[in-house]
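Q: What structure does this chain adopt?
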Amino acid sequence: MPPSQKRARRYDPARTRSAVLAQFAHVRAAVRTLTPAQLALPTRLGDWTVRELAVHLTMALSAVTRNLELPEPAAEKPDLTLVEWPFRTADRAARIADDTKALAVDHSDLDALYGEVAGRFEELVPGAGDERLLPTRLGVMRLADFLVTRTVELVVHTDDLNEAAGLDIPYDRQALAACTRLLADALAEKAPGGSVEVRVPPFAVVQCVPGPRHTRGTPPNVVETDPLTWIRLATGRTEWARALDGAKVAASGERADLAALLPLMG
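A:
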């Protein structure tokens, strides 16, 4: 079935909003504990330090409020769907890096920045309609869809922060689920088909890759992994071969090699 004919996955906007705030709160609590030495540590994100990564995490929420404060686009419908969003992000990487460094220079008090961003989000977002169109930097999106993308930003960068600073920041279950599902659906969008079944228990199962479509019984081509490994694969934090060698991914069948399709996000 062509991607355009698939029924889009539905997300509960209230639960998504709560998940975004819950994950942000987890990160804020951890950032409060960081020492100057930890804040100066390098990260796997180019030349960013832990402090710059912590600053960047606030942009997951401030992007929502910034767009809500702009005039609503005159368009009758979005020009960017949720499942298309992951493929647009790489084009903005340089601009995002510049914005992050500027924000880090302007805000010496991280906890004050987190408090300001969370307060503004809680003030503006609950009163906005789920269908409200936002003029995001990647295209016009529904507010409800844009909030789902925030779970990706928060979960992915929480993992980056855990890795860089040796932390154990928890993942809100709903945020982790939404992030996992969106990236799984993006794979099915990139490689439409039914010859491979990708399982990321307990959150997602998708079929993808052109070829014979499986309908009953055990699929001949199966990929299975856990949510964090899937997210790292989809965002380029780890490589397919490394995940296989480390037994983080189980792949069976002659078509069950996703190396050429990953990562989905730059």
